[in-house]
Amino acid sequence: MVLLSLSLSLSLLQYCITSWGGAYQNTITRLERAQNILLRVILNKPRLFHSDDLYKILDVPNLVDVYMYKISLYACKYSNDWTRIHTVTRQTGQIRIERVNKSIYKRHFQYLGKKLYNILPEEIKHEENIVRLKNLVKIWLREKHHSQFLIENL
Record's superkingdom (predicted)? Predict the structure, then answer.
């Protein structure tokens, strides 16, 4: 029953996340609350049960981690189409990130995808097998290597 509920809820949350994942914080907060309520119902926990414990018990990603997962896969898929830095500096081989002034675009998946691709490990960037790529990204996100990226960008 728990597995069925989780699969239904996560599929709904992942649907079109690249579009609304970069929305303003008040929209994201409502989605996070809905996910927390759903996890409490699945585990039959009281209303004041801490949400971090819910995610640890069920070992499911929170909404931001799901967004980072989808952005990482998007970045790996489209990285060949983006302009790379060719000058001989410490950024050689990285993706060129355009300068923007609008805060809404700084949360957009295309902008964040380029920035996130530059911090992904080389093992993930060069993986050809899609199943292994997804597993490597999940492990990388689970180990919280992207926490500094989240602090700076979201």
Answer: Eukaryota
The count of structural domains within the chain is: 1
**Rounded CA gap, 59 and 55, in Å?**
5
Inter-residue contact 79 to 117 (CB < 8 Å): yes
**C-beta of residue 109 within 8 angstroms of C-beta of residue 71:** yes
Q: Residue 64 above 70 pLDDT?
A: yes
Rounded Cα distance, 67 and 20, in Å: 9
Which has the minimum average pLDDT: 92-96, 120-124, 137-141?
A: 92-96
pLDDT of residue 147: 75
Query: How much is the pTM?
Result: 0.79
Tokens 């949360």 identify what position? 107
Residues spanned by the domain of 53: 2-153
What's the angle, vertex CA 117, arms to CA 112 and CA 123, rounded to 5?
155
- pLDDT at residue number 82: 66
